[in-house]
Write a structure and sequence with these properties.
Pfam families: His_Phos_1 (PF00300). InterPro entries: His_Pase_superF_clade-1, His_PPase_superfam. By secondary structure, the chain is of the alpha/beta class. It has a single domain, classed as Phosphoglycerate mutase-like (Rossmann fold). It is 29% helix and 23% strand. The protein contains five helices and seven strands; from the N terminus they run βαβαβαβαβαββ. α1 crosses α2. The longest helix is centred in the first third of the chain and has 16 residues. The N terminus is likely disordered.
């Protein structure tokens, strides 16, 4: 059941997969930087969030270099970026680990941005979404590419109330910068 009405304020979870990364020889996965395309797409993701009026109150970001660079380039598009928390648990995380991170979100946060990696982010979106607008769920099932943004909405008293199938997937945006 989707919590569309009832107890608590409307909350948004904005899930951003890191932008396209490079694969330099000899560099550990955690240290891989953004590729040139990723350096173009990450700012486009920030602009897309601003245009959709989805600027977060808080960001939680993987500690991986490519995720941190995505966050830095995206948030640089905003007049006043929110606080960000780097969390090592988001790197290579599965749904239970990501859910634990989300459940720690302070109650005053209405919109949370989670910047991380696949397959965990795609699985999280599908796990939380009980329904989706238009063909949003099918889009995520088909592919959740780099620089993809998924927007989940639900009503709940706290972030601990975010449970499987309780959110509505309202939008999927794939941000692409110009060459």
């Amino acid at each position: 059941m989707i919590a569309r009405a009832g107890a608590g304020p409307l909350r948004h979870l904005v899930v951003l997969r890191h932008a396209k990364s490079a694969w330099p020889a000899g560099v550990p996965d955690h240290e891989r930087p953004l590729a040139p395309r990723g350096r173009r797409d990450a700012p486009a993701a920030g602009r897309a969030l601003a245009e959709a009026d989805l600027l977060p109150d808080l960001a939680v970001c993987s500690t991986a270099v490519r995720a941190r660079q995505t966050w830095e380039l995206a948030s640089a598009q905003w007049v006043s970026p929110p606080p960000a928390r780097l969390d090592a648990r988001v790197y290579a995380a599965d749904v239970p680990e990501l859910s634990a991170v989300l459940h720690e979100t302070p109650g005053e946060v209405g919109t949370l941005l989670l910047v991380g990696h696949n397959p965990g982010l795609e699985e999280l979106v599908l796990h939380l979404a009980g329904d989706g607008l238009d063909d949003a769920l099918d889009e995520v099932r088909l592919k959740f590419p780099t620089s993809a943004i998924a927007v989940l909405a639900w009503r709940g008293g706290t972030w601990r109330d975010l449970a499987p199938g309780t959110a509505l997937l309202t939008d999927v945006i794939v941000a692409r910068g110009k060459k």
